[in-house]
Amino acid sequence: MGKEIEHKYLVCDNSFETQASKIIEIKQGYICRSKQRTVRVRIQDNEAFINIKGETIGDTRAEFEYAIPVTDACILISTICDSPIIEKSRYIVEYHGNTWEIDVFKGHLEGLIVAEIEIPSSDYNYDVPSFIGKNVTGDCRYYNANLVSGSIPQEK
User: Is residue 66 part of a domain?
Assistant: First the structure.
């Protein structure tokens, strides 16, 4: 079984832009968005994937991802996925031996910037770059599947 352990943070400044080694353009849609499971179609640059995730428990969930033809992904996104579609630029930042993915959302989520780090275990220790703000791991308002039909979450 595939497994994803991920921590998610809000971003407090744009210094990540100059630290990024790569920027990936992403368009993604959801076929299924429930608490127990999500099924997502993603096009990133010239590749496409279908991704299936189980329910998040703490910072961990089952995850399976498979490459699919880009033409199939375009059809799925335009005809089957929920609207609106999420579009974002993903900045890849290497920091102290770990890879951070910073998503700058577009469209109805413009203004939202979220950083994620995938880790090998829940108790893994890692250094946090200066652009990292509030930890929102486990806050379902920031799950991409919940952002589809919503707006930018307001901080409490």
Answer: yes
Burial class of residue 52 in the structure, from the number of CB atoms within 10 Å of its CB (0-12 exposed, 13-18 middle, 19+ buried) = middle
Domain count, the chain: 1
Residue predicted with more confidence, 140 or 155: 140
Residue-range definition of the domain harbouring residue 103 = 3-147
What is the mean predicted confidence (pLDDT) over 41-59? 94
60: in domain: yes
Q: Is 95 a catalytic residue?
A: no
Could you tell me what percent of the chain has a pLDDT over 90? 82
Residue 142: give its domain's CATH number. Answer: 2.40.320.10
Torsion of CA 20, 23, 27, 31, to 10 degrees: -50
Residue in 9, 30, 91, 142 annotated catalytic: 30
